[in-house]
Amino acid sequence: VKKAYNILVHSGNLIEELSVGVxxxxxxxxxxxx
Length: 34
Hints:
The structure is a single chain. This protein is an all-alpha fold. About 95% of the residues lie in helices and about 0% in strands. The protein has one helix at about 1-34.
C-alpha cells in the first residue's frame, strides 16, 4: 500500500512539473510572436 502511495505522489509531482513546463513554454511562444 505504501509503495503504491509513493508512486501516486511521485507521478502527481511529475504531472505538476510538466504542466508548469508547458505553461512556461506557451508563454515563451507568445512572447516570440510579438
